Fold this sequence. Notes:
The protein is α/β, with parallel strands linked by helices.
Amino acid sequence: MKKLLLSVLFTLLGIGCYADEPIQYPFTVQGDHGKLAGIVSVPANKKTYPLVMILHGFNGSRKLPIFPELSKQLNARGIATVLFDFNGQGESEGSFLDMTIPNELEDARRVYEYVSQLPGVTSVSATGHSQGGVITAMLAGELGKDKLKSIALLAPAAELKDDTAKGDLFGTQFDPTHIPEYIVLFNGLKVGRAFLATTPHLPIYETAAPYTGPVLIVHSVKDELVPYEYGVRFHQLYQNSQLETLYKFDHSFTQDVPAVCKIVTDFFAEQLL
């Protein structure tokens, strides 16, 4: 019944759309800390399609410029996408003070469960930027290539583990042996004890390593937040990965977002179509 209702919804939403525009519909799904808000974009005039989950980074949202652009490019190539906000961020429920990488990983698991059951979806892949790249890598390691066909990591921020172990988060210092209730970052954002206490002990690479599907890693040597060496380490971790080294881009690839999105889109098109 659920699949039938969704099929009817797709049809209704498609009425009046231009032929080359994707069909978009919002959704909510129960996450680890409340309901998660997201949007699915389905290529027009296609009954079946691969789908790519797109995961944002630390204190981000699905509406940051790179994510709608990537979704648009993937849709144009016949690939569906899902964009969503992690708990305590964007339009999703929860408090950012409670956010941790483990509960974001649980959010991603639940979104995967939702999209993998959608009508027309032939396979699911994932891509994530910064902390979202860490979540993508860990999710892929857990699910395996049979459930996540391919992944792309954009400036994956595994340095968060090393930095918080030393009592540092984006330049804000704290005592890792006596973690406070929260710290205040340079931009006024409060980060809670849960994140500071759990991040140093995350088995990021151990969880990610079992994944054997195709992996793309995109990282800039000029990244001002996540050193390029972390991209290299992920590349060395996998059996089947390619590293796209950029030279004139910052952490969010603001110098040319469409060009970076094309690199990712070309990779998924090669793997999925």
